[in-house]
Amino acid sequence: MNNALILGPLQRSGTTLPLFDAQVPAGFPSPALDHMEHKLSLDVLLDLQAPHTYVVAVSGDSMVGAGIFDNDHLIVSRALQARPGHVVVACLNGDVFVKRLAQDQGQFVLRSENPAYSPRYILEQDELMIWGVVTHSLRNHLNHG
After folding, report:
1. Where do the Peptidase S24/S26A/S26B/S26C domain residues begin and end (predicted)?
2. Residue among 85, 87, 81 nearest 52 (CA)
3. Is 101 exposed, middle or buried (0-12, 13-18, 19+ CB in 10 A)?
4. Which position among 77, 99, 112, 137 bears the catalytic label?
5. Is 39 a catalytic residue?
6. CB count, 10 Å around CB of 133?
7. DSSP assignment of 18-54, as one string?
8. CA nearest 91: which of 120, 118, 50?
9. How far apart are CA 98 and CA 59, in angstroms?
10. Are 3 and 62 in contact (CB under 8 A)?
11. Which of 62, 77, 112, 137 is catalytic?
């Protein structure tokens, strides 16, 4: 069962957005927020290292404990070395998943971040390929209820 769809590599855009000079409070707004002093590049913010970065669309609820929800888009880096504790895009026996990479007594495990799903221990006969490390997630807040 797949829960990740590879959308393709990212390319640098060079587009910048206004950046507020102060942090935005989650409570009451500050009058100081009327001042936009800087420009911010999403390429820099998301550390896009084209062509080593790509986007994945997520389906399912197995990673909600990591803040990754159905229909989110993930920024994935192929340039990073996957380590236990990282959320990764993994291909296990031909199926592509987004899971947390773990190690249990020397054995690699792909763990969901939802207790409804069991961990998947990697067996000797399994073919596991790590396709990248998840660095950021993007969510459309208009379409999440």
Report:
1. 18-134
2. 81
3. buried
4. 99
5. no
6. 19
7. EEESSPPPSSSPPGGGG-EEEEEEHHHHTT--TTSEE
8. 120
9. 9
10. yes
11. 62
77 is catalytic: no
Give the strands of the sheet with 107-111, arranged side by side: 4-9, 53-58, 73-77, 128-138, 87-92, 95-104, 107-111, 120-121
Rg (CA), the chain: 18
Helix (H, G, I), strand (E, B) or coil at 100: strand
In a 10 Å sphere around its CB, with 0-12 CB exposed, 13-18 middle and 19+ buried, how is residue 97 labelled?
buried
Tens-binned pLDDT, residue by residue, of the chain (145 aa): 447 666 556 566 666 655 555 555 666 655 555 555 677 667 676 676 666 888 888 999 999 999 999 999 898 899 899 999 999 999 999 999 999 999 999 899 999 999 999 999 999 999 999 999 999 898 888 876 5
Place of tokens 């820099």: 44
Query: What's the whole-number average pLDDT of the chain?
Result: 81
